[in-house]
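Hey everyone, long-time lurker, first post.

I ran two proteins through the pipeline my lab uses and got sequence/structure pairs for each. Pasting them in order. The first:
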Amino acid sequence: TAQDPLLKIMTDAMLKLGRQRAREAKEAQEDEKYAEQKAEAQQLAKAWKEVLVVDEAAWAAIDSWVIANVSNKTGEVVAAIPLTLSGKGEADGLSVNVEVRSGEDAHGATFEFCAAHNIRGLDQVEQLTQMLDAKLDEKDYDAPAHMQLKTPNEHIKRAQAHEEAHDYAAAGAEYVRAFKAPGLTPAQKQELTQRLSSVMGAYSSVKSYATAWQGGKFAEAVTAAGSLPAQFRSDRLHLTVARAHFNQGKIKESLSSITNYLTNVDKLGDWSDEEPRVIAATSGAILAMRLGDIDKAKKMYQIVLRADPEQKRVKTRYQMLKNFVRMLSDIEELLNKSKNHDTIKAVDRANLVLEEVLGKEAAATAGTRLLLFQCKAWSSMKFHDDAIEACNLAIEQLQNHENPDNKRVAEAYIWRAEANSRDESWDDAVADLEVAVAKVNSQEIHVKLREAKHQQSQWNKSEVQHNRRREEVGHFYVHRPHKKILDLPDNIDELDKEQKCKWLKKHYHKVSLRWHPDKVKGGKRRAERKIREASEAKELLQMQWECRGGRR
């Protein structure tokens, strides 16, 4: 009937309206879900930033730590003896004063002077002590009561306690007092000679370290610390060495120093917040995050929690890091389901967390895993420039990790190979897969590599081409989509010769600008290859269409 067409139109309109409303409801639901996820991310970022600010402050406070082994003399000079040094080098003939200040005695002054000027002979130490004692007697000066001579054993015991506390100035002074104490046996004297020489060397190295540190010469400080035997390095010294690397901008070396310290540190007992080992773990986690090494950051916290599971400060930070790792797992799940747009949104949320917690500059290097997610998602969406640029940055950051995980590195190269394959960059895809195979020798990667090599062979296959007079004009690639490379319209073959040549000239110019090495993403080498491919395509089409300027 006449009403049937109208009824059909109305029915179709109602169906379209229903579908539109369903789409709008779904979009609203997704927007609501996205808003909730963004709010959760912002809440995590705020709480995480608050605790990491405390850790950053503790890490920065290392700069102001006083090296306890080096005394800062401030008392009034009560006795002084002028000396002229003899020996090799610049010290020969140098005039110096040996000084005793209020609150000191001859033994402490002798030790510090001899250690500073590399005087190790026991006879010289004893002679200088006697000279200073005589000078102090002239001045009628009495040293503090705790510095009075006791038995040799008592002084040795005190010295050993100071050594354990890494206070080498106090330890050396006690060893010198032991030499002067009544009742010293020949065996004790022999042992003291060795101990005194060892402590003098440690004191001298620590003094050089502290002087370099306080002068901002951090490379010299690291060298001086390296000359110290392991038993003479305090926990604080280990941390200041890590800080010295950091102050030179060497984050990887700083993290390595912290890792070595935490590996060898005594892990028994409760770990209090102010201890160097806790500060080392929390600071190391921050450094690992800055390098984009989430797994390393987790390990820093795990070192503490394995030894002290109820360490509240570290436990809180570890939970926040786990929440962030869960965000990464959710993104990976979206990627596996090919939900690429949702993946990009989720990556943006995670990046906001990192920027809030670490700052924008640090977040740029901390988001290694996020860059890989972006690479794969953008590649699937055919945004090849963005995809390959993201993969390039991720691989660069992975190589900067302290101990790069071969599986992670191989995965990054595989994902970049996939992006290069979609971009028909077969040479680059093969090169990436060869690196992946070298990192992880698996059958799956070998299969991908064989397929990529086959495609590479087809892409690079060339044959001799002839002009219309059947003359050879050179080798040209025969399996490359030359019209696609130049982004020519689909109906180009329907146009006449003049129009074809105009389009060819116009699009070659456009593509050349598009792939300018200083402007395009993905690396200069890739841009140069794209321009070369465009030039080869233009030359072949010019010849085939008999355009002016082409080979004929």
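...and the second, right after it:
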Amino acid sequence: GHCVAEVVQKTTLSYYRIDRAVMASNRVSFSSSVIVFLLALHVSDVMSFAVRRGAALLAPGVAARAIGPFASRCWMSAQDIEKTEEETARIKAEREERKAEKERLKAEKKAKKAAEQAAQELADKIHDVTYLSYEEQDKYEKFGDMTMVMSRSRSGREFVKVEDLGVKHQPGDTVWLRGRLQSIRVKGGSCFLVIRQDSFNTVQAVFFKDKENPEFSQKMIKYLKTLTEESIVDIEGTLASSEVRSCSVQNVEIMIGRIHSVAKANAILPFLVEDAARSEAEVDASQETDRPFPRLGQELRLDNRWMDLRAPANNAILRVQSMVCQLFRESLYSQGFVEIHTPKLIAGESESGAGVFTTDYFGQTACLAQSPQLYKQMAISSDLNRVFEVGPVFRAENSNTRRHLCEFTGLDLEMAINDHYMETLEVIHSMFRHIFTGLESRLAKELAIIREQYPSEPCTFTEEPCVLHWPEAMQILKDEGFDIGDGMGDLSGSMELALGKVVKAKYGTDFFMLDKYPITVRPFYTMPDPDDPKYSNSYDIFIRGQEICSGAQRCHDPDLVEENLKMKGIEAGAGLEAYIKSFRDGVSPHAGAGIGLERVVFLYLGLDNVRKASMFPRDPNRCVP
């Protein structure tokens, strides 16, 4: 009995220790069968100990009766352990099978859901539209981005102009329209778009949810929400009567039936066109409000000039520039002139005192032409007695002012004269009158738009040329308090402005001419005044007190040209030698002028900077874009 009690005590203690070890471990997991197995092994050891101890205390029969049943139970436990492991393996296999089946069903469900989602996305996807033919357009989706226009076909669509809506095209008409998306507003089942053409013609287009076709309406609205401002879009729709005060077309709007994006703009733009279209006065007035308008700097505008030119006034300025060229040509053609095109790569300087851009010309140094001056004069020697040119002019002058550019468009003319350079001034005056009156009559709409953002008044001018002589101009400036010294220096900007102010008050004109400049401030090809060689037969022309044109009677005598070159310290290179030789072969007396196109536009419109009148200006700090 003592031995059996000791066995039970050791067995209980061993079980307790194993149980505690298993419970304390976070890394090892024991099953109950493993614990039983370990206990059985330990019991066998304990029983061996008991037999040895009991043999000395008990008779063999007593020992067998005391220990036998317990040993038998331990042996039966080992068998049970073996069976339990087999059962555990079976249960584990069944569990793994159930787990695998569960994972399979889960994967099937997931795959089915993904397939349904993909099918729904495919059904909801807005596909690109390849529009090939108007006759087959019923086969195409009524919304979606247009595939890239690559000249695949002529679709047969007839696009209309926004400005003709409500005039040539009336309510009930179905029209195709291509324009730029100026703005879009989506509210519930309603969409309002403003479409812009040519920068300042706008029309409203609308789409309303169709209760009879909700699926189509939902997809159309979904597509409209993807459109970005400033994108190019094609719209087919029916005109309907409407009162729209916010657009240039105010009596009709377009009921959208079909819309396609032709070219999408970035969602984030450098600035908004509506911000670029505000006047300085409007921006200034907003600064004291809760929602001040942004002030767009000149550099930001010029860095993104294509955006800046979408503003109605800025776009209209370039149309004015184009019209000035057209009117310039019209006037001179009507007066017997021939248009010429002179070289822009020349061997030497064409203007004394003006900086040049040089470049390598196959091992020689060439210059970009500062003007077509020499070639205009050689055209007169070629018996082209009246010539003009519209072309680029390059000046390498580091002038960072509001009225200077390093590259501009020159409007140049040269003509043979009979007796006096006034013949040329009369031609120029007639030409400018044609330009001024033509701008006001042909571009009234554009000028109104420009003057709304950049206020100015039409340029005033006289019927006959208003010509001041140098001495009179010097007296005016002296009376205005300017220190003119000996009166032989060139005019400063402030002097020009003061002179213009007095001339406007005295003669009632913004446009006038000043002749008889001192010979020392004029180029070498200028004819001296026959009465006083300190002066010259030269002239400048002004608008609103600022110079737009410089000209003169030219020296047509080769010896006098060479004398002037020596006086000014200029060497006659290869380019000038050919120029002088053309005079030695006989040339008519002649005079002419060079006009800066951008400066004419800038001053006629009363702008604050010549860069506003240049499409992509070039100055000492800007050569891009």
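Reply from user beta_strand_b:
Welcome! Quick read of the second one: The first strand starts at residue 174 and ends at 187. Residues 60-124 form the longest helix (65 residues).
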